Amino acid sequence: MIKCDFHMHSFRSSDGNMSLDTIVQTCQRRGIDCVALTDHNLLDEAFNLQQKAPFKVIPGEEIKTNRGEIIGLFLKEQIPRGLSPRATAEEIHQQGGVVYIPHPFDRVRRSVLARDALLEIVDLVDVIEVLNARIIFMADAQEAERFAIEHGKLMGAGSDAHVWWELGRCFVEMPDFEGGREQFLKALAQGKINGKLSWPAVHIASSLNKWRKKYLKR
């Protein structure tokens, strides 16, 4: 069995500050065996992490559609922001990737995929993130789990780390796998969700990261 964190951000995300070395070292300390690096609307740093990390790295991208965010896993090429949710999900599948819905029903974040948009593409969804360490209310995670069960979707989890101390707070313990989409989904079906929430103050940290990059650059 391996521990997998399917949602995190490097310094390349506007609100992240983790270097690739920091990600590698922190994951090794915390026993994380597989990660998906899912920078906002960027993919290239995930390929760089693949070359550096001694553990499994899934190339991912958290894509801002015109109705909210969708994560693509096992991507080969960056997907542009601003497409419709269906066009985004279809592009993920065309690349042999996995459509992963991050933090659905989080009542605090403005970036969540709208409920009606999620229902419109539910036929294309592979995985629902039922535990995200950055949610504020556990009831939102419970609603995500109910949705996944109701619609027969696999369940995922991720720290959504933007700073090092968040890494590995939520993870899936699942059988090891080789290859891409199909092998991954088969292993995830046997997975177990684990973890705990981060302190709400992590949102302040990522906001400061964004402010620092925006204004110090000027």
Provide a descriptive summary of the structure in words:
- The protein has 218 residues and is of the alpha/beta class.
- The chain has a single domain, classed as Metal-dependent hydrolases (TIM Barrel).
- The chain is 33% helix and 25% strand.
- It contains seven helices and nine strands.
- It has a nine-stranded mixed β-sheet with strand order 7-6-5-4-3-2-1-8-9.
- The longest helix has 15 residues.
- The chain starts with a strand and ends with a helix.
Please give the share of residues in helix: 25-40%
Architecture, CATH level 2?
Alpha-Beta Barrel
Alpha-carbon Rg, integer: 16 Å
CATH-level-4 superfamily name: Metal-dependent hydrolases
Tell me, rounded to a whole number, the average pLDDT: 93
Proportion in β-strands: 15-25%
User: Strand order, biggest sheet?
Assistant: 7-6-5-4-3-2-1-8-9
State the helix count. Answer: 7
Question: Could you tell me how far the N terminus lies from the C terminus, measured between alpha carbons in angstroms?
Answer: 47 Å
- Show unreliable segments: none
- The CATH class, by name, is Alpha Beta
SSE topology:
Elements: E1 2-8, H1 20-30, E2 34-40, H2 44-52, E3 56-65, E4 68-73, H3 85-94, E5 98-101, H4 115-120, E6 127-132, H5 138-150, E7 154-158, E8 170-174, H6 181-188, E9 192-195, H7 202-216
Parallel strand pairs: 1-2, 2-3, 5-6, 6-7
Antiparallel strand pairs: 1-8, 3-4, 4-5, 8-9
Primary descriptors:
single chain; 218 residues; alpha/beta; TIM Barrel; 9-stranded mixed beta sheet; 7 helices
